[in-house]
Design brief:
CATH class of chain A: Mainly Alpha
Oligomer: homodimer
Strand order of the largest sheet of chain A: 1-3-2
Shape of chain A: globular
Largest interface: A-B, 39 and 39 residues
CATH topology of chain A: Arc Repressor Mutant, subunit A
Order of helices and strands of chain A: HHEHHEEEEEH
Largest sheet of chain A: 3 strands, antiparallel
Number of domains of chain A: 1
DNA sequence: GTAACTGCAAAATATTTGCATCCTT
DNA sequence: AAGGATGCAAATATTTTGCAGTTAC
């Protein structure tokens, strides 16, 4: 893990720093997507808020993570797949937001349905956000 | 128009006030979704910011409008269809965000593809956000 | 007349920017 | 050593809350 995240940072030509490693590890360890607040909590207020802002922004620019649309004004981020190059996201899997526990899951194994756009429209990315109740909360 | 928006407000048991009428008209006149900032601009700073916040919140609660997930931290709202009751949204059409002009369209005539969820997951709503270039910007 | 709505002020939160210091390379 | 990254402080921006005055019904 330790080595893996360093590799990713190097590949993106970023200096390997403590905060970047930690934050990247959070994403690898998390089953779902993370918001700024989640990272603050996970890090135990170890990092400055500003550092988190800047780190997330850098990761997005480098194509390491991407932002997920949400309806509640809290941007969430998730790891990009390998085929996300800098500035080019092919993030065509589905996101599931649990109304009960608030967790955002990335459903990698669910294929995205094709969408038929009206004449004249061209698409570069499709996001699908399904809200509902997740497995854990349904069992409880 | 004037009469129509008043009707909608009455139906939702809301007092018919100036700001509510104006804001509701904006939604009816707009082809796309509106963010808080759009409404401020459209109203020419006529209303207090707070009034806009509260009006939008009230409209969402009453099922008149709904919020659309966006990746850029700016909540956008759009009119609900008739079958949106209070607290119950069946907003299963597709939203298209133009990367060029930033407009959000509601593509009513595009059907939403069914999504096959993993075992244990239940869904209450599906949002599809397609990003790309809209008809107008493609033509330009 | 009463309940509900608005506007103002202010508090609470969230985000951005500048700069000095520290760390990575 | 040099460039980049971080942390602190402060400037902005955003959202929420309380309350007094006004308006709709």
């Amino acid at each position: 893990m330790e080595a893996a995240v360093s590799e990713i940072l190097k590949r993106s030509q970023l200096s390997v720093t403590d905060s970047r490693k930690r934050i990247l590890e959070f994403f690898h360890q998390s089953s779902g997507a993370l918001a700024h607040a989640d990272i603050e909590r996970l890090s135990g207020e170890q990092f400055d808020r500003v550092t988190i802002y800047r780190t997330l922004q850098t990761f997005v620019e480098k194509g390491i993570i991407h932002s997920i649309p949400t309806a509640d004004n809290s941007i969430r981020y998730a790891l990009c797949k390998d085929d996300c190059a800098e500035g080019h996201h092919h993030d065509n899997h589905i996101h599931f937001v649990c109304d009960k526990c608030g967790t955002t899951f990335c459903l990698d194994h669910v294929s995205i349905p094709a969408v038929q756009l009206p004449m004249g429209f061209t698409s570069s990315q499709t996001d699908v956000i399904v809200s509902g109740v997740c497995k854990q909360c349904n069992a409880a």
